[in-house]
Amino acid sequence: MKGKSFIVRIDGTIEHVEPENGTNFTLDELKKAIGGGYIEVVPLTFDKVMVVDEDGKRKQLALNVAATRIYNGPNDFIVGDALVCHRKQIR
Question: Which residues contact 81 (CB under 8 A, 6 or more apart)?
Answer without folding.
Answer: 7, 8, 9, 10, 33, 34, 35, 53, 64, 67
